[in-house]
TrEMBL record:
Keywords: Activator, DNA-binding, Nucleus, Signal, Transcription, Transcription regulation. Residues 540-603 form the BZIP domain. PROSITE patterns: BZIP (PS50217), BZIP_BASIC (PS00036). This is Nuclear factor erythroid 2-related factor 3 isoform X1. Belongs to the bZIP family. CNC subfamily. Pfam families: bZIP_Maf. Residues 160-186 have a biased composition (Basic and acidic residues). Residues 122-205 are annotated as: Disordered. CDD domains: bZIP_NFE2-like. Residues 1-23 form the signal peptide.
DNA sequence: CCATGGTGTCATTTT
DNA sequence: CCAAAATGACACCAT
């Protein structure tokens, strides 16, 4: 028959086995050793405050946070090994009631003190009622219950409600917390290996690391148990040893849960570890006004991200709103939306818009008249803003500045009669040096080129550009201002057009921006080859594709960054939670040790109060000590001998440890 | 007016 | 070696 597990059991770090056989009575001390099948972290480790157990969580507690069967098998194996106790001292229970029986002058206890074996009393008295105040079992309560009382254990999302933020945002935050929940919780194995050791590791390495961590922890426990074994399984020891060990064991044993084991960076959050508000701020600092909700879309198994994904999909038709008419397109979704038709029908509603349209048409005409590309001409109407969207040729310009003359020669191919003007304009910066475009020009038939000319001349508008106005530096009518004017005067749909979309529209690019960006490489190249496009159009299409790809890449990059930040935040939360659990465990161990010390002291005093020497005088406990030998006898030994024996035992234990 | 965060873009590096 | 992706840095804009 086994006594209930002491309330402090579950520490797993202080393995103090005391076999005190006094007159046949056996007092077994087994502190903080988790019983087979349980892990102290499973009992003590509370849930992460930002991870309230919800039904929507993809990982329930029964699923072990998604632990793999291999890991569960390893955990079971380790527990079985621990349960066997090999080669450690077999685990025993604290038979506090025995101490009580001795202290209260129980007859069996007295009899046991005299040296007769009465180990059966342990079994017979196992169900005796424990002593009221000092019995640790009476103070036993579930660590989870402790956790429930801990205000810090409240879900952060609930606390956030008090932060004055809307419930919807709180829901989002909660979803975010759950979003990052499984990503690290399922990586936390049952042996409590810190998640931060593995959270950023590839999943394939997790198992190996898990094995290493398990071995590591088993080794730590082995050392702890061996130390206890070396101290206590010697041929003999005294109660003084027990006192000394109890005095030294807390610090020693608690090294395993020392706060120094927490990674150093946690020290920065040490002060606020007891404050749930800290968790709020941590999450809040990242979640506040973050418009990167799409970032969550990358992570699977997340309701929040799935919701956003659905929202994004619902908005996708709107994203295709800027698709242009292309009869050759086989993509149905790229058809011309009515909104765009409406927008085109509204061209006369705004004089400014007409002016801008005329300007662009004039630019096209200028390009024809001067042999200068419309893009270059259009640059004359903007400031040299690298962010203008019209600076797409900036890289080419910088890389081919020395070839400006050749570029102008190329431009002469369009209109050889204006070479001098080409030079003049080229000095402004209107170079068009990309050689690949000329390859398109080479295989293009002249008739097609003239068709392009006719097409552009068809939009002829009288537009005269003064040479002085061509200086971009002096041009105050910048692109951004133009965009502002356009966006300010047009409807919302027009305002949502990006610069590339506007330019593509102005240059009559027969493809939508989405098409250009999302099209596969082969399709893109074949599309360029199939269509007769001007160099400007090809250049713009390529730039649109490059910018679009890069835009998506930048978005993905930022999403990854945000995910990393969230993951780190989650790691911080986990480590804080573990730190709190370890602190509670340490406090419980200290309390248990104190109780044990007191009980042992009482027992010691009681034993000596009953002992008499040969003359019938009481034995002074300050001069003598009780020493237990393996043959079951208890000797009263002068303390001088005990101290010398302790030194020998300590030396022997040290030698065995060094082996 | 300033601070902050989101976003687009370019240049460069990495894959 | 080249193309695409990734990323740092910067500028602009909205709040």
């Amino acid at each position: 028959m086994k006594l209930p597990k002491p309330w402090w059991a579950g520490g797993g770090l202080l393995n103090l086995t005391l076999l005190l056989s006094l007159a046949g009575l056996r007092v077994d001390l087994d502190l903080c050793l988790p019983p087979p099948g349980t892990s102290f972290r499973e009992e003590l480790l509370p849930l992460c405050p930002t991870r309230p157990a919800s039904a929507s969580s993809p990982f329930s507690a029964s699923e072990g946070w998604g632990r793999s069967p291999q890991l569960l098998a390893k955990g079971r194996l380790l527990r079985e090994v621990r349960a066997l106790g090999v080669p450690f001292i077999p685990r025993t229970r604290v038979d506090a009631w025995l101490v009580h029986s001795v202290a209260t002058g129980d007859a069996d206890g007295t009899h046991g003190l005299l040296g007769t074996a009465a180990s059966s009393a342990v079994e017979d008295g196992g169900q005796a009622a424990p002593e009221g105040g000092g019995d640790p079992r009476e103070a036993h309560h579930s660590p989870l219950a402790v956790e429930e009382e801990d205000p810090a254990a409240e879900p952060t999302a609930q606390v956030r409600d008090t932060d004055g933020r809307g419930s919807q945002e709180n829901d989002i935050l909660k979803e975010k917390s759950e979003a990052v929940d499984h990503t690290s919780q399922h990586e936390e194995d049952e042996e409590g290996v810190p998640a931060h050791l593995k959270s950023l590791q590839p999943s394939q390495k997790d198992e190996n690391k898990m094995i290493d961590a398990l071995d590591w922890e088993a080794e730590v426990i082995t050392e702890s148990r061996n130390e206890s074994h070396l101290h206590w399984s010697d041929t003999s020891f005294s109660l003084e040893d027990l006192f000394q060990l109890l005095s030294s064991q807390p610090e020693h044993s608690l090294e395993g849960i020392s706060l120094e084991d927490i990674p150093p960076f946690l020290s920065s959050v040490d002060e606020s570890v007891n404050s749930s508000a800290h968790n709020i701020n941590l999450s809040h600092a990242i979640s506040h006004d973050v418009n990167l909700h799409e970032a969550m879309l990358l992570c699977p198994n997340n309701t929040f991200r799935r919701e956003l994904a659905r929202t994004s999909q619902a908005q996708e038709p709107f994203l295709q709103l800027n698709s242009h008419v292309n009869p050759e397109q086989a993509i149905p979704s790229m058809s011309f939306p009515p909104a765009d038709n409406q927008m085109r029908n509204l061209t006369s509603q705004d004089l400014l818009y007409d002016l801008d349209a005329n300007i662009f048409d004039g630019i096209n005409l200028m390009s024809l008249a001067t042999g200068f590309s419309p893009l270059e001409v259009s640059q004359l109407f903007e400031e040299p803003d690298s962010d203008s969207g019209l600076s797409l040729n900036s890289s080419y310009t910088t890389t081919t500045k020395s070839n400006s003359h050749c570029t102008c020669d190329d431009a002469v191919g369009y209109n050889s009669g204006l070479q001098s003007l080409c030079h003049d304009l080229g000095a402004v910066g209107g170079c068009y040096p990309e050689p690949r475009k000329h390859c398109y020009m080479d295989h293009r038939t002249l008739s097609a080129f003239h068709q392009d000319l006719k097409c552009q001349i068809f939009h002829d508008h009288t537009y005269h550009v003064q040479p002085g106005v061509l200086e971009p530096k002096s041009e105050s009518f910048t692109w951004s201002e133009k965009s502002k004017k356009i966006s300010g005067c047009h409807d919302d749909l027009e305002r949502n057009l990006s610069r590339d979309e506007q330019r593509a529209k102005e240059l009559h690019i027969p493809f939508s921006v989405d098409e250009i960006v999302q099209m596969p490489v082969d399709s893109f190249n074949s599309m360029l080859s199939r269509h007769y496009l001007t160099d400007l159009q090809v250049s713009l299409i390529r730039d649109i594709r490059r910018r679009g790809k890069n835009k998506v890449a930048a978005q993905n990059c930022r999403k990854r960054k945000l995910n990393i930040i969230l993951s780190l935040e989650d790691d911080i939360c986990n480590l804080q939670t573990k730190k709190e659990a370890l602190k509670r465990e340490q406090a419980q161990c200290n309390k248990a040790i104190g109780i044990m010390k007191q009980k042992l002291h009482d027992l010691y005093q009681d034993v000596f109060s009953r002992l008499r020497d040969d003359q019938g005088r009481p034995v002074n406990p300050s001069h003598y000590a009780l020493q237990y030998s393996h043959n079951g006898t208890v000797l009263i030994v002068p303390k001088e001998l005990v101290l010398s024996g302790n030194k020998k035992v300590a030396a022997k234990g040290k030698r065995e440890r060094t082996k």
